[in-house]
């Protein structure tokens, strides 16, 4: 069968302040083809797709679409060209019907009138759904549909633009196996109709059943494009991880204490977590690896009582503790440093002192509830010195600090509260390279001083560099705990994708 | 590194502290400035405006009730919440105080205590609706606003409660002169403001008020029992409703079930003009007092200029727009907001 090229991207680059997100990346798509893009977190998949759908502007490179050089300058432009994207997080309006959602922004009006013609809208939606062999009622409210059905609405919406290219970002991440199978059926229908589908997925085992070709990206660079029938999942994984020229940095060997400070038994939650158990020892850094959506943040939040658990026990130094709210966790000496510092960690419009003492205010007040500002000031100045927080004074507003220094403020908050267990969720996200090193040194120092640290990270080099042991999660379950000396990126990825030799 | 910090520190301390203070407090400085300008304007137009009789009896006395309500609601607004019930709750507290004082033959002090307790309870009810039922503050207090309005009418049987002549000294709560030339009502307002400023800036509950308004999620994750504190903060708002109700009955010589609706918006306007952000996390009691005074001065001055009341309303509306817009412009140029 002769192939006709639908789309080709050559030499695409994109830089964000401090990060080269894409460097000279190639990608092409034929008519009637499903082409997967795979890579670790941060490999550049999403950035590439956002360039293709007009959300980001590329810094360099060329896009040829149906034989013409095009400049996709906005999502609207992409739509006009015929490139539709289905985002990982669904963008539907739950209080509108299926038909209203599909045709949002292109409503049918009665000729010359201002009123909407719902009958025609429903008819058009019905025809479209029949064409895709979807059993959906155009008049049903989208909010009442299952996630899988909502996914179908998104697909119908994408198809309704009559575009040639449909990009699907992690379309199966919230689907059950049966639902996934019916999604594949639709994708095959689209393929048979000559459309090009770009398919992004973390679930490598799906690739062999639905894709024709696989392009691997790593650290923003193009690695290789493989023909699906001629490759294997293990080949894809090793290409994704790559063989780094430099030896991975590993932590100094620290004698691991046998003292278990935290024991978690069978934590489950209502959505994702299934029966997670692990132990944390004194002075240990326990890394949590996994792909996006593996449930690591959910585990941390359930552990500290920020979200409800459906089952599970928590033991501190052998004694069971009930943690029902973050206040309980803090009382037990567990501090959580969120991946989203600005949203969940800091009071940006307040100064350093306010932020550092926030968890320990009872300790800085007398029995009448009056604040003792002098000792607070001293503690904060000491913390600034000890953690080398770069700030003109303790009265600086936290929003004026850099990401690295903001992270240190959150660390100072928990150290001031005397927390012995610290949960770092993506401790270096949004922090530039130089400051990262400082955070790493700080974590190591804390561990040496006897603090026990859980470090959730999506960056494998970071996990390998910092952790004494590595716990790997996949889809809400703990799939393995590996000693650092036995771990490498390949092995972690295998656990993270549930793929084992 | 530490030398660098010292250098930067030195620079800050080397600059004039007053200049730094003015820069930090620019919002309140501007509000106070406008108050002075408005005051001078009316004084030039009608010199009688600046007479002490007009200032204390006209301006200050007329701002006591709204001022007290505004002080209490400043706490609520700094948490990022709102309390629409304070106006009709004032009427309800006044009626309940009147009825209790009458039927139990209470003295002044017991009557005041009843007012504070009932006001505090109404505030706590708001807090519980917001934290336990998780109603948005706007909805919760809209509901209690309507309920209080109805209850005031029911309890009073739609008639004013004339109790103050039965209670010795009730009228001197607001109208006496503990300090010569200063009506007690004005004294209560300023003492209430000073207490509130101390609580807001020097105590744990004040600190949590700012923390919750700055970032409720982060405050909760820091181990603060946000819900407990929110109930207490709405309770503080209720205590000031109690004070306002007592001052109101003392001034009027009775408790009227129909008076109070609309006070909440005047109080909120005072808070906003005083530079407290409706988004939460920022605000001062002194700003609120300045805001309340700006409104009182405007109303009084326009009345002395014999402008019709309808126009007073329009001008008050314009002042709110000007005050908040001006604050936005200033903060945008200072890079505080984008």
UniProtKB/TrEMBL annotation, chain A:
Topology of the protein relative to the lipid bilayer: Peripheral membrane protein
Keyword Transport recorded: yes
A matching Pfam family: ABC_tran
Annotated compartments: Cell inner membrane; Cell membrane
Key words, A-Z: ATP-binding, Cell membrane, Membrane, Nucleotide-binding, Repeat, Sugar transport, Translocase, Transport
Family annotation (InterPro entries): AAA+_ATPase, ABC_carbohydrate_import_ATPase, ABC_transporter-like_ATP-bd, ABC_transporter-like_CS, P-loop_NTPase
A Gene Ontology molecular function term of the record: ATP binding
Ribosomal protein in keyword set: no
Assigned GO CC terms: plasma membrane
Major site of localization recorded for this protein: membrane
This protein's name: Unannotated protein
Organism expressing this protein natively: freshwater metagenome
Phylogenetic classification of the source organism: unclassified sequences, metagenomes, ecological metagenomes
From TrEMBL, chain B:
Keyword terms: Cell membrane, Membrane, Transmembrane, Transmembrane helix
Record flagged with keyword Cytoplasm: no
Localization of this protein: Cell membrane
Topology in the lipid bilayer: Multi-pass membrane protein
Record's keyword annotation contains Zinc-finger: no
GO CC, any one term: plasma membrane
Coiled coil segments of this chain: none
GO molecular function (one): transmembrane transporter activity
Membrane-traversing stretches: 26-45, 65-96, 108-133, 186-205, 226-248, 287-305
Entry-linked InterPro entries: ABC_transp_permease
Cited Pfam families: BPD_transp_2
Main location: membrane
Name of the featured protein: Unannotated protein
Species per Swiss-Prot/TrEMBL record: freshwater metagenome
